[in-house]
Amino acid sequence: xxxxxxxxxxxxxxxxxxxxxxxxxxxxPFITQFLVFSSNSETLFGFEPKHGxxxxxxxxxxxxISGFNLQNNSIAFSALQDECTSNDFISPIYNLSSxxxxxxxxxxxxxxxxxxxxxxxxxxxxxxxxxxxxxQNGTQLKGPYFTFFREKTTLPLAAKICLVLxxxxxxxxxxxxxxxxxxxxxxxxxxxxxxxxSSMRYYAKRVLPLRKRGNFLLCSIVLANxxxxxxxxxxxxxxVHGLFAVIGSxxxxxxxxxxxxxxxxxxxxxxxxxxxxxxxxxxMIVTGIISYPLGFILxxxxxxxxxxxYTRDQITRMLTKINADIEKPELDVITGILSLRKNTVRxxxxxxxxxxxxxxxxxxxxxxLLDVHKHGYSRIPVYSNERSxxxxxxxxxxxxxITPEQYHLxxxxxxxxxxxxxxxxxxxxSLYDLMQEFLKAHWHIALVQDIRTEEDQFDPVSTTVGIIxxxxxxxxxxxxxxxxxxxxxxxFTFWLFLEYLYLSMDLYTLAHKKxxxxxxxIHGQEKEHLIHQGDYKNDQWQQRTRSPTNLSxxxxxxxxxxxxxx
Length: 566
Prior knowledge:
- It is a single chain.
- By secondary structure, the chain is of the alpha+beta class.
- The protein has helices at residues 7-11, 157-182, 186-193, 198-212, 214-237, 243-275, 277-286, 288-302, 312-321, 328-338, 345-348, 366-375, 411-418, 431-441, 470-478, 485-488, 490-513, 519-544, 548-557; strands at residues 30-38, 47-48, 52-54, 60-68, 73-78, 94-95, 102-107, 117-124, 128-130, 133-135, 139-140, 147-149, 350-351, 358-359, 379-384, 386-395, 423-426, 445-452, 461-469.
- It is rod-shaped, with a radius of gyration of 52 Å.
- The two termini are 99 Å apart.
């Protein structure tokens, strides 16, 4: 509460009206408290010691008065200094009571724009009748506590409303830029500046110089946003007061200043920032005297801005969920490459029981050659005694020049003659490391070994548990099975090889059984037999491969594996 000094001591207020003989000097009015509120008692009016209470454009307000000997007195307001007659009053006359706190709702009825100051008059309850007219004279209370000052409005109401809207729009603009620009990293903008999209390059080049000044830009945007909100709230309070000003400013800030602009700039922040980069530069210049030192301090304390980093799993999940111009096979290759370090050899290898292998002591006879060509593998492991004891690798082409005269040879002879290199890998190795080893050592196949503990041994031993090929690694990258043309037409190769064997056997038999014939007769009969044999095989091949259904059926019958590596 505002304590008002004694009326007599500060204002020297003595009623000009003659007091009643029964009234003593101690019965003079004495005001101890004098407060001015808005009409709804929510806002206390401003006070300036030189001018008094500030009314602005208000014509209605509420007074709270307390004191002594205020009963039998009234108050009124006058627009003229030192004039307190009925003709000078611009408000009704309000009677005072003996209550401890007197509450009065004042309405200035005849106030005009030319009235800059309003004065309070204290009127005793003495009516003087002159010429059948009622005259009431009062005493004007001196001092700023009993003076009301009306500020002259420099802006009309329409201009204030437009300015308030513009300030909140600016607030929303800077709030949206705070989210839209600061969410874009410098690295992202550099990538966009080098992209194939011309519009994206244009937008990124406009925003990149701003974004490089990260903390300076942040401080400028936040400072401009807060300044717009503050000015808009103060200006709105000059239009509406109290609860309406609070509700209005809150709604404007939340809707125009926060929700709507951030929802828009979260999707089109780069485009909006590029088209308004000059306005952003202007705000940085205007607020630079404060924002630049703040940004400099933040750079020294926090250091350089750290860009976002992603793990391989995060990149993989992000690629599978975002809408990008990537087809499903391309996405499989990308995710397959990213998962090479995580996937192990154990996940891609072929288990040893499923591997087609050859015993080193097996004869290279026609049965072996037919079996090798029927399976169609390009590289075949060779074992000794037991399947886990692999001693080398032979290739399919190593058997191409085997003739019936060499059927007494064994697989070991072929292995020792060619001596093809192969590698070793642990079951726990990553596919990425294995692929690097394949490319470095020029291997196409490796034996997979694992550490196991036998029942009768305490020390762990290394045991071959399977094989893995370069094609297996490629299939993990592509995430699909590789079907080569060799796999599709291996049945054709198989029939050709059969035909070659039949012809070789026929030639060998004819050479030993028909020695008594002359060379011309032998050659003629052999030539006729070869032609007949070739026509028969050709007709048989055409009958089996006349339709795709027969070809696929023949292919499935031969149980050809798709791990054929050239």
